[in-house]
Design brief:
Blueprint: E1 16-17, E2 46-54, E3 58-67, E4 77-81, E5 87-92, E6 95-99, E7 102-106, E8 119-120, E9 123-127, E10 139-140, E11 143-144, E12 199-202, E13 205-208, E14 217-220, H1 241-248, E15 254-260, H2 261-265, H3 277-292, E16 296-303, H4 332-343, E17 349-352, H5 359-362, H6 367-376, H7 390-399, E18 406-409, H8 411-414, E19 432-439, H9 447-458, E20 463-469, H10 476-487, E21 491-494, H11 518-527
Parallel strand pairs: 14-15, 14-21, 15-16, 16-17, 17-18, 18-19, 19-20, 20-21
Antiparallel strand pairs: 1-20, 2-3, 3-8, 3-9, 4-7, 4-10, 5-9, 6-7, 10-11, 12-13
Helix pairs in contact: 4-7
């Protein structure tokens, strides 16, 4: 849906899905200790526990480093090596690097000091092919941690119990008996927030870092796509801890945040107080707050550049002041490269590459031309600017080194998924999700259409409901829709957690303390059943 000067007015849609097979979780542990000296610390006695959550072509490495000596450390430097072709993608809770098979992790600015008995928890994602053998030899500040005087657990083995699914509530500087498998989602320069699971695609499911299926149930939080470019601020309403707690009180686990291309990139048409660095910092802070309250975040590219005056045009200007039929080649790849760089250490954040494509409308409702434009971009029928196709946006994110889950909405304002599988872009990480939008005024708004168009897609890949809603201030449509989605083990995010009139643009609340509208009351009651 697109928010205009106040409520949203445009075609909306949404529906999510998560279904399929379980994650093949491979894990190895190695732990040992040995006295030694390194850096400024007079002695290092260390224990390292290593676990790997393997999904076939990649894995998450979760490492717990424990200071088992009597002296604190002022800094730490972890070293270990793989025996195969494991390749680092991104890491957090430290600065990760790889040279050949050797991996090094240096402490972040906030977690270098480790008291006696304290722990730190660096983690990272890797890709590989062939055999994924766990490393067994680890060093801290040059001291071997599995030396000649190891504790009882010295061999590499597969744990008989699953790692803890309860993440640490603060940087790990106190003793811990169970490693957290939900990695930090904050930039490495600040302590990690807690609660939000790291997610990835496995078959036609979303899984968290423990291998548990993650089914999204949440809301959209509109505002950052329009307020900044209209000179009204960055958000529409509060985004502080209290307001996010209100969202979480509805038993949500995901929040979709629409963004503006010009505001993120600091274009000249946006005031500096609302664009560029100020906008980016505000978004990063909001994401951190959402994560703290257990929310996975979807960052959605909502408004983009390009002059378009054809079918269903919402505005005639070149700047990002409305929904365009497709993202622009001039700036959208740069937008995603920048966003990817900012959040590539945060696997609790999903990238929704473009809100609601409608290149088929621009091409005179020609579905074949629309899907070709959607996938490949370039010069598209009916669109006067060069288009960034979905493949180029996937390339921009992966080229920035980000392994995040990517959402791709279909044509007809993300309501048509009929040819999504045939035009699915190539992704070296195979970490793609179909985004579907569903409103009572869309073409595909019946269970028979959902069975024919959506079910075949969710049988092969996850489908997330980026947006669901209705414009009558009731909830009969989403009652039917969520029942269908639940029966297919799929998830969704309702439009929207904003306080405008729910009949002019689907709004869940009348106040930011979570007071529901009539529309929102039905959705809140449904979420309470989980």
């Amino acid at each position: 849906m697109t928010a205009m000067t106040t409520p949203s007015r445009r075609l909306r849609s949404a529906v999510g899905a998560v279904a399929g097979a379980a994650l093949a979780a491979g894990a190895g542990t190695a732990a040992a200790l040995m006295p030694g000296a390194a850096h400024a610390d007079t002695a290092v006695q260390c224990q390292v526990t290593y676990t790997a959550n393997d999904w076939g072509s990649g894995f998450g490495a979760n490492i717990v480093i424990k200071n088992v000596g009597s002296s604190p450390w002022s800094s730490w430097n972890l070293g270990y090596s793989y025996t195969g072709n494991q390749t680092l993608q991104n890491g957090w809770n430290g600065t990760w690097s790889q040279s050949g098979k050797a991996v090094t992790v240096v402490n972040a600015s906030w977690n270098g000091s480790v008291p006696a008995g304290g722990t730190v928890n660096p983690a990272a994602n890797f890709t590989y092919s062939g055999t994924n053998t766990a490393p067994t030899v680890f060093t801290i500040n040059g001291t071997v941690c599995n030396g000649s005087t190891p504790p009882p657990t010295t061999s590499t083995s597969t744990p008989t119990t699953s790692p803890s699914t309860t993440p640490s509530t603060s940087p790990s500087t106190s003793p811990s008996t169970s490693p957290s498998t939900s990695p930090s989602t904050s930039p490495s320069s600040s302590p990690p927030p807690t609660g939000a699971p790291a997610v990835h695609v496995s078959g036609n499911q979303l899984l968290d870092s423990t291998g548990k299926v993650f089914v999204p149930h949440g809301v959209n939080r509109s505002g950052a796509e329009f307020a900044c470019v209209q000179g009204k601020g960055i958000f529409d309403g509060p985004v502080d801890d209290t307001s996010v707690a209100a969202i979480a009180s509805w038993k949500t686990n995901i929040v979709r945040v629409p963004l503006n291309e010009d505001c993120w990139l600091g274009a000249s048409n946006v005031s500096s107080q609302y664009g560029g660095a100020a906008y980016q910092s505000a978004i990063e802070s909001f994401v951190s707050t959402l994560h703290k309250h257990g929310q996975v975040v979807i960052l959605d590219l909502h408004w983009t550049d390009g002059v378009y005056t054809g079918q269903s045009s919402a505005c005639s200007v070149a700047t990002a002041t409305c929904q365009k039929p497709m993202p622009d080649a001039a700036n959208a790849p740069a937008f995603w490269a920048s966003v990817a760089n900012a959040f590539k250490n945060d696997q609790s954040t999903i990238f929704d590459l473009f809100n609601e494509p409608y290149p088929d409308f621009a091409a005179g409702f020609n579905s074949a031309l629309g899907w070709s434009c959607w996938q490949n971009g370039g010069s598209c029928t009916g669109i006067g600017y060069q288009v960034a196709g979905m493949q180029s946006l996937v390339n921009a994110v992966r080229g920035a080194g980000a392994a995040n889950v990517l959402m791709l909405g279909g044509v007809a304002y993300s309501n048509d998924l009929s040819q999504w599988l045939q035009h699915k872009p190539a992704d070296p990480l195979n970490n793609l999700v179909a985004s579907w939008h569903s409103y009572n005024f869309n073409s595909c708004s019946s269970s028979s259409c959902w069975d024919s168009q959506v079910a075949p897609v969710l049988a092969q890949v996850p489908v997330i409901a980026g947006e669901i809603g209705e414009n009558d201030c009731g909830h009969s449509y989403i009652d039917t829709l969520t029942a269908w989605l639940d029966s297919h083990h799929t998830g969704y995010a309702a439009w929207t957690w904003n306080t405008w009139d729910c009949s002019s643009g689907p709004s869940l609340i009348s106040a930011y303390d979570g007071t529901p509208t009539a529309f929102g009351a039905g959705y809140k009651a449904h979420l309470a059943t989980f």
